[in-house]
Amino acid sequence: ATIRNVMAELEDEGYLEQPHTSAGRVPTEKGFRFYIDCLLQVEPLEEAKKRQIRRSIEEGTDTSSILQKASLILSGLSKHVGVILAPKPEVSKLKHIEFLPLRENQILVILVTEQGVVQNRLFETEELFSRADLLRMNNYLNSLLSGLSLSEVKLRLLQEMTTQQESLDRLLKQALLLSQQAVGFEADGLIIEGEKNFLYTQEFSNLGKIREILSALEEKQRLVAFLDHAIKAPGVKIFVGSESKLDQLSECSLIVSNYGPEGKPLGSLGVIGPTRMVYSKLIPMVEFTAQSLSEVIGV
Fold first, then answer.
1. What is the CATH number of domain 40-86+189-297?
2. Terminal alpha carbon distance of the chain
3. Topology given in CATH for the domain delimited by 90-184
4. Edge-to-edge, what's the strand order for the sheet holding 94-101?
5. DSSP 8-state symbol, 18
6. Tens digits of per-residue pLDDT, 53-88?
């Protein structure tokens, strides 16, 4: 009787709810928030999992593959969805730009940042360029742009096109136009792994709900904005249900953390899963992955 009275009181105060008449009581968002803030005891991350995370991240050969590995290991160990927002291009410094010939009238533009992020852009051109032409374009652009942030690159290109218009020959003008298009391309920078894990989650056995969640992951713009906002706050942050303000993920929780040098975060990462996820184990997992990632690419 005492237990029933307590359960009824918790339900009256909004900490528990009964989804339907034949179901038992389950925690509400308010209940999960109270548990996280007042009762949760975080468990130390097992050494074996630490080694797995470190090993996976260190297998990456550049920043892009390192981030991919980190998202994959987060998904694999958590059995939920792993997400990582890559470093913003605007704060990355350009190390190298290269134009490579592919098929006729096609050029591959490769941008490499000092953080090791590699971005490829494929362009179709009306004009044919020889290897010698592309080499000259590469040398000109690298002498002009190397070491600048990508926001500074955009400004320098605009200045060069405006002030040096008369002195540049046709080939170098083409180099400026192509590179301006390459750095102006906005990629979302979002890496998602483990979407299939939702299929094996009891809470999301309803096919319609799974479609909603997968649709939210495919429509990346709002999730990118959410993770971008998470970069600004230090440490691990937990969003339960509607707290994320992502409508299609209102029955999910997100555990996120930023990564990068202290005081200069580069991006954010985390896991997305049901609100009943094992917070005590996942919080240290997200935190350790962020720390490990910071050590590898936090330059």
1. 3.30.450.40
2. 60
3. Enolase-like; domain 1 (3.30.390)
4. 94-101, 106-113, 118-124
5. -
6. 999 999 987 777 889 999 999 999 999 999 999 887
**What's phi and psi for 23, nearest 5 deg?**
-95, 160
Contact between 252 and 286 under an 8 Å Cβ cutoff? The reply is: no
Q: What is the pLDDT of residues 143-202, one digit of tens each?
A: 999 999 877 888 888 888 878 777 788 888 888 888 888 776 555 678 999 988 887 887
Check residue 235 and give left, alpha or beta (phi > 0: left; psi -120 to 50: alpha).
left
Would residue 199 be called left, alpha or beta, if left means φ above 0 and alpha means ψ between -120 and 50 degrees? alpha
What is the spatial distance between Cα 249 and Cα 223, in angstroms, rounded to a whole number? 10
- Phi, psi (degrees; rounded to nearest 5) at 109: -105, 125
d(CA 14, CA 184): 49
**8 Å CB contact between 92 and 71:** no
Structural domain boundaries in the chain: 1-28, 40-86+189-297, 90-184
Of 248, 278, 266, nearest in space to 70 by CA: 266
**Structure tokens, 246:** 């992502």
